[in-house]
Design a protein that fits this description.
The chain has 633 residues and is an alpha+beta fold. The chain is built from 21 helices and 23 strands.
Length: 633
């Protein structure tokens, strides 16, 4: 329907908006839901020097958000100004925007809240005899009145969006809104461990954090103490006045990576931020340690000079702009990598509970348990006969197991076939190129031609032979690439190997050429539907990788996912493919020399606890878990 001329005429007239409408528009950027009010009010309390902050919520904050603090307070004469838009005590001149050291600074939060909720402020400074209260709603500011109360401030926001019902109907359920409020408070509590935080939702205390906690204690109190043994400390000191950075935090073991990035908490000068530079650095540090679709757990606290970062780039102040972005990225990447490099990243086997009772237990597992108990008893008897204690050494238990009949063990647990390592296996002793035979520190058993079993000081170690060798081959390829000035050594073919391809895959060869040059691959179009491979990496030829099959897979993957020319991530993805093709496979029988070499390389290769794709290569079954399995504790 056409718009009436009178309406068109009125809309063409420029006029100044009413103050209430201006504030409601501003509130649309700042106040999205109750969690936005919680964030603004708690940040104001922190800026006011509070040592204790209490947050009360009703109906998820929709009906009430009340924040009480013991900070400096607002004097009687200042209270009306606190509700005025763009009135603040935190900046004075334009130059202050280049060195913002407070969480809030725009002076629009309280005015915005008062335009979409019924706001009440009661405050008292240390030098005043009583508190004072002021209320605001619908753009109107009430009179300042005396009230009773201790030094500090209490701000209450009631009935959010009562005067803008269109926005109120977009709020989620009270439970969902409560969860978002609590998440914000936990984030702010993580960034400020010296402040006590209490959260009361519908009369029930849901958070109660004491003051003056250490950063580590606060992180574990918020994230859960069950992660205490799975968090690694990160520490970086690159501070040189205005361009430096200090970083401290805790990052999770690869085993506790999550499906989303919600477990990453990054703080800059006490402010929660979501920054792509930081997120990329964290993800890059975990490259090859976790699967591509998962995200590390991390809490990082970054301190920088305020004039080295611009925090005035987002209405909710979540995004920032670093003046030296590459320095921040490299500092975080180095710090997290160093923490991971120092740690034993072998994941612990999941807790196992086995109840041995009539009719509800696998008979083979029962037989195996009985046999191991008998072997342990035999070893204990041998230890007593030699004058030792009743607890045998690891060597004594191993000797008793080696003296047991292989058939007994096979029938007990490994019923699917012989168990290599307990008896001669007749393995093929021919060793392919690149293998040598150092003597291993411990005996290694190959189980079902797929898994290797050995021990360390903490328990039994179970290794996926393909995943471990894949990591070994990846590191070998990367080492040859670095030693070859960024190019892999290649070997020419007597005649080109022809690969069938789709026309669009043939057309992609030009885009892939820079990547192929680095990988030692020489390929050209032979026809609109075929590609010829004229040279291939020497290491892959030594490992028996079929150049034609590899090229077909590579072209299909590029068509499906795409590789950016010159991108290091693309290079690593193709190296991952090469390592996977060159590695031994599940089901391959390994000679003793190959087993020895693989175990030796496991100790020397960095990040051997995971394959290049992020899957674990190794799992540990601890002594404690074994004792529980056999009812010894």
């Amino acid at each position: 329907m056409p718009t009436p001329p009178s309406q068109l005429e009125s809309r063409a007239t420029i006029r100044k908006l009413p103050a209430l409408l201006v504030n409601q528009i501003a509130a649309g950027e700042v106040i999205e839901r109750p969690a936005s009010i919680v964030k603004e009010l708690v940040e104001n309390a922190i800026d006011a020097g509070a040592g204790r902050i209490r947050v009360e919520l009703e109906a998820g904050g929709i009906e009430l958000v009340r924040v009480t603090d013991d900070g400096r307070g607002v004097g009687r004469e200042q209270l009306p100004l606190a509700l005025e838009p763009h009135a603040t005590s935190k900046i004075w001149v334009p130059e202050d925007l280049d060195r913002i050291g407070t969480l809030g600074f725009r002076g629009e939060a309280l005015a915005s809240i008062a335009s979409v909720a019924r706001l009440s402020i009661r405050s008292r400074t240390a030098d005043e005899d009583s508190a004072w209260v002021i209320e605001g709603a619908d753009g109107e500011i009430g009179e300042v009145k005396p009230a009773a109360g201790p030094p500090g401030t209490v701000i209450s926001a009631r009935t959010l969006f009562y005067n803008t019902p269109a926005r109120r109907k977009f709020l989620r359920t009270p439970q969902t809104e409560k969860t978002r409020c609590v998440e914000w408070i936990r984030d702010l509590a993580l960034a400020h461990p010296s402040i006590a935080f209490e959260v009361v939702t519908d009369g029930k205390t849901t958070i109660d954090l004491p003051p003056d906690q250490s950063p580590r204690a606060r992180i574990l109190a918020v994230l859960g103490r069950e992660h205490e043994g799975e968090m690694l400390e990160v520490s970086v000191d690159r501070f040189d006045d205005s361009r430096g950075v200090l970083i401290w935090g805790l990052v999770g073991m690869p085993a506790i990576a999550r499906p989303t990035a919600k477990a990453q908490h990054v703080f800059l000068n006490g402010r929660l931020i979501r920054d792509r530079t930081v997120q990329h650095a964290i993800k890059e540090a975990y490259r090859g340690l976790i699967e591509p679709g998962r995200h590390p757990t991390a809490v990082l606290v970054i301190e920088m000079s305020p004039d080295a970062v611009d925090v005035n780039v987002h209405p909710a102040k979540l995004e920032v702009r670093f003046r030296d972005q590459s320095m921040v990225h490299s500092a975080i990447l180095r710090g997290v990598r160093d923490a991971l490099r120092r740690a034993d990243l072998t994941p612990q086997a999941p807790p196992t509970r086995i109840e041995f009772g009539p009719g509800d237990v696998d008979a083979r597992a029962q037989d195996f348990a009985d046999q191991v108990r008998a072997m342990r008893a035999q070893a204990e008897a041998a230890a007593r006969a030699q004058g030792g204690g009743s607890i045998p050494s690891v060597e004594a238990i191993r000797e008793a197991m080696q003296q047991a009949s292989p058939g007994d063990l096979e029938s007990g647990f490994f019923a699917g076939g012989p168990m290599p390592g307990f008896a001669p296996t007749g393995l093929n002793t021919a060793e392919p190129a690149g293998w040598s035979s150092p003597k291993p520190a411990e005996r290694v058993l190959q189980v079902h031609r797929s898994y290797l079993v050995t021990e360390d000081e903490r328990g039994i170690v179970i290794i996926d032979q393909h995943a471990l060798h894949e990591r070994v081959m990846f590191e070998k390829l990367l080492d040859r690439l670095n030693k070859g000035n960024g190019v892999l050594e290649s070997q020419g073919m007597l005649t080109p190997i022809v690969v069938d391809a789709e026309p669009r895959q043939v057309d992609a060869l030009a885009d892939l050429k820079p990547l192929f040059d680095r990988l030692g691959i020489e390929a050209e179009a032979l026809s609109p539907r075929s590609v010829g491979v004229r040279a291939f990496p020497t290491l892959l030829i030594e490992r028996g990788v079929d150049p034609g099959a590899f090229m077909a897979d590579l072209l299909q993957r590029h068509e499906r996912e795409g590789f950016v020319p010159g991108d290091e991530a693309a290079l690593h993805e193709v190296l991952d493919m090469m390592a996977c093709k060159a590695a031994v496979k599940a089901g391959d029988r390994l000679s003793e020399g190959e087993l020895d070499e693989l175990m030796s390389l496991r100790e020397s290769v960095e990040r051997s606890a995971s394959c290049p794709h992020g899957r674990p290569t190794t799992v540990r079954l601890s002594i404690e878990q074994l004792e529980k399995l056999f009812h010894r504790r």
